[in-house]
């Protein structure tokens, strides 16, 4: 199986890549590093990536930014970035990448538990994550060639909390979260939102 991992150098992307490489051929792509660079906020960049990589059996996206900031402080740019990057970026990965996914292949996107468990400062993030969940459930009904579409919704990742100088005890280790992505790639279901805890991963 040939798997394209987008965001392969990030906090989640790197352990996802390592976990998948134990079993499959993995093609790495990220915003800033070779061999394949991609900016998912730019549709032209997505098109260029798929043109270079060619046909794949699975796509996993661990990329996309959304702004965490109190509602009163959110700017137009914060909202637009969140929509353009994490939401539309992943929507466009599906739209523009479909023709490059082999029959019976899969696409796994990244959301987050803030869609259903919001907190102060998370208005933009919660909005984007909720939009992704709705998109995945509906778009999965229309994908051709038995292609599957799912979304992993992690809670706080331990390594992220550490980087923010926050208590890491409430976070799930990134390598454990990564197993939920492997689970999605290897599963047979579609149109599902996989909560990391609920998936038992």
Attribute tags:
6 helices, alpha/beta, Rossmann fold
Reconstruct the topology from this structure.
Layout: E1 2-6, H1 13-21, E2 25-30, E3 36-37, H2 43-53, E4 56-61, H3 76-97, E5 101-110, H4 123-139, E6 148-153, H5 158-163, H6 174-186, E7 193-195
Parallel strand pairs: 1-2, 1-4, 2-3, 4-5, 5-6, 6-7
Helix pairs in contact: 1-6, 2-3, 3-4
Question: How would you characterize the overall build of this protein?
Answer:
By secondary structure, the chain is an alpha/beta fold. It has one domain: Rossmann fold. 39% of the residues lie in helices and 19% in strands. It has 6 helices and 7 strands. Helix 1 packs across helix 6 and helix 2 runs parallel beside helix 3. It is globular. The relative contact order is 0.15.
Q: What share of the residues lie within helices?
A: 25-40%
CATH homologous superfamily grouping: NAD(P)-binding Rossmann-like Domain
Here the CATH topology equals: Rossmann fold
Mean of residue pLDDT values: 93
H/I helix tally: 6
Order of helices and strands: EHEEHEHEHEHHE
| Head-to-tail CA distance between termini | 22 Å
Count of individual beta strands? 7
Q: Architecture, CATH level 2? A: 3-Layer(aba) Sandwich
Number of domains: 1
Task: Give the structural class.
Answer: alpha/beta
Name the overall outline. Answer: globular
Low-confidence parts: none
What Rg is obtained from the alpha carbons, in whole angstroms? 16 Å
The percentage of residues in β strands lies in 15-25%
Biggest sheet statistics: 7 strands, parallel
Strand order across the biggest sheet?
3-2-1-4-5-6-7
CATH top level class name: Alpha Beta
């Amino acid at each position: 199986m040939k798997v394209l991992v987008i965001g392969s150098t990030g906090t989640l992307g790197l352990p996802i890549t390592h976990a998948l490489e134990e079993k499959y051929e993995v093609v790495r792509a990220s915003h800033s590093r070779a061999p394949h660079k991609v900016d998912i906020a730019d549709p032209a960049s997505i098109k260029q990536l798929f043109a270079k990589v060619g046909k794949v059996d699975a796509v996993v996206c661990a990329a996309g930014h959304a702004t965490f900031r109190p509602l009163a402080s959110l700017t137009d740019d914060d909202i637009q970035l969140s929509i353009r990057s994490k939401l539309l970026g992943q929507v466009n990965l599906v739209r523009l990448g479909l023709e490059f996914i082999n029959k019976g292949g899969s696409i796994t996107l990244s959301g987050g538990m803030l869609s259903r468990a919001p907190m102060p400062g998370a208005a933009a993030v919660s909005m984007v994550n909720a939009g992704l969940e709705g998109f995945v459930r509906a778009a999965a009904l229309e994908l051709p060639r038995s292609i599957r579409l799912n979304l992993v919704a992690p809670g706080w990742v331990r390594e992220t909390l550490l980087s923010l100088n926050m208590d890491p005890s409430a976070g799930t280790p990134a390598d454990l979260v990564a197993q939920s992505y492997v689970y999605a790639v290897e599963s047979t279901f579609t149109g599902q939102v996989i909560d990391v805890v609920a998936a038992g991963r």
